[in-house]
Every structure is written in structure tokens, then in C-alpha cells.
Amino acid sequence: MRYLLPWRSVALLFEKPSLRTRVSFEIAVTQLGGHCLYLSPQEVGLGVREPVPDVARVLGRYVDCVVARVFEHASLETLAKWSGVSVINALSDWEHPCQALADVLTIRENRGATAGVHLAYVGDGNNVARSLCIAASTVGMHFAIATPSGYGLDEGTVEMARRLSDSSGAQLLVTEDPAEAVAGADVVYTDTWTSMGQEEEAEFRRKAFGPYQVNDALLGLAKPGAVFMHCLPAHHGEEVTTDVLNGPSSVVFDQAENRLHVQKAILAQILIPAD
Ligand code: CP
Ligand code: NVA
Predict the structure, then answer these.
(1) pLDDT-derived band of residue 273, with 50, 70 and 90 as boundaries?
(2) DSSP-assigned beta bridge partners for residue 143
(3) Which CATH class is domain 9-94?
(4) Could you tell me the residue ranges of all domains in the chain?
(5) Which of 179, 199, 224, 231 is the most exposed place for a label (fewest CB within 10 A)?
(6) Distance from residue 41's CA to the centre of ligand 1 (Å)
(7) Among residues 111, 191, 213, 263, which one is catalytic?
(8) Given this model, what pLDDT does residue 65 score?
């Protein structure tokens, strides 16, 4: 057996909880022949026990790659600046790119292509939505996003997505009307209304997002045979009903599985030296 990453060491530095990201990265590194170690929020105290540049410079002396889940996106940039090794975003307050790549793979498996697929995202214009919007626009997927007023994507992301869509031949729709976004969609996607770190806003958000729940009625506006996607963890009865999540349209566990496959590709791409 020839491993792609023999003796490579990867640190998983997590400031927030995780099931999928932590387990899939750990298994990915193991299957590629490398070694992975998990550093919990309590152990490192990023920026609390020790300044981020110091943590970065120490880790860079031991490991070949840092996979980091952080509250502030700036912490990732500081890790990348000071560690001297590759840093992979395992979710920040701004983006969740590994999830978006797994989602693109899931859509391609399911629809046979990505270009021309209509993807509707309903809910919070958060990290998952931002990465998905950029990924979809890049590969030529038509992306429609419906968020309540005040919870939409930032202008910079929308502008970037418009540029990417123009070159990939995709269309972009930004609306506050879930029905408009979902009408005729091939894929309907949602995420939690309250992301990690926003727990104090949960009650307020539940009220603001009520009309944005993905249920049978909303999914019924999509194309016949449309699929439902969610990065998980899901809050049954909030952003999605249990019927939809567990129903025949749901591909949420394919998405979770695909985290493993795309992350192996990312690690191989980053850590195998070019000839
Ligand atoms: N989707 C996702 O990133 O899940 P975890 O928070 O469990 O890693
Ligand atoms: N938007 C969610 C995604 C969890 C995988 C969060 O940031 O908590």
C-alpha cells in the first residue's frame, strides 16, 4: 500500500464544537497515511492563553498543516501569516469553504453536473451561505438566496458572486422572498438560523426567520425531484421540518460523507509537493 501523505502531521485547532469537520479531517489524514492531532478550545486558548502569532509559530515548527475552526476570520489569517505552513479554514464566522466544496460534489453526484443547476438557499446569509454562493457562482450554478431583511449577504460577497457568475454563465438572484428563490429550483438548501457564537440572539432570530422554514409547502415550489440540502447540525422544526430532513428529497448525509472525500483531495493538493 502506498500512502499519499506518509508521516505528514496535521493539527486540528478548534475554537468551536464539531462532529463532521473534526471526524472527517481526522479520518482523511489517517486514510492518507498521515497523523492528526486534535487541540480543543480549552487546550489552546487561542489569543487568550497565548497570542495567535505565537501559537502559529509554535505549531509551524511541529506540523505540516493546520486545520482551524475559529470565531474570528482574522485569527485564520494570522495563523496563515505566522505559521509558515498551510492553514485550512474549517469554519470561521465568515466562511465554510470545505462545506461548500462537499456541497458542490454532492450536487454533481446527484444532478450529473453543476453548470446550469438552480440552487436556492433560504435562511441566514451566514458563513455557509457565503461560501456556497461563491462556489456556486464559480462553477456556473444559478444561485438564488432568500434572507430576511438585515440578514442578507454583504455587498462585497454579492459583488464577487456577480463577477464570478458573469464569467461562468450563471445567474444570481438576491431576494427576501423564499417562494421566489425556490420556484423551479433543483436544489433547496438551508442552515441554522443561529450560528455558533450567536446563541444570545436565538430567540430573536427564531421570530425573524419563521417564514423562512423549509417545509413541504416551500419544497413543493421547487422542480419535481428537487433535493434538499443542509450542512448539519439541523434544528428540527426550526429552519427545516423533520419530514423534509428525513424525507426522500434529503441528501444531507451524502453531504456529510462528501466532507471526507473533498478534504482528502484538499490535503493531497496542498501537501503533496509538485514534481
Ligand atoms: N457541517 C459541519 O461543519 O458540521 P460540524 O460543525 O459538526 O463540523
Ligand atoms: N452556520 C453554522 C454552520 C455550522 C456547521 C455555524 O457557523 O454555526
Answers:
(1) confident
(2) 119, 172
(3) alpha beta
(4) 9-94, 97-255
(5) 224
(6) 15
(7) 191
(8) 98
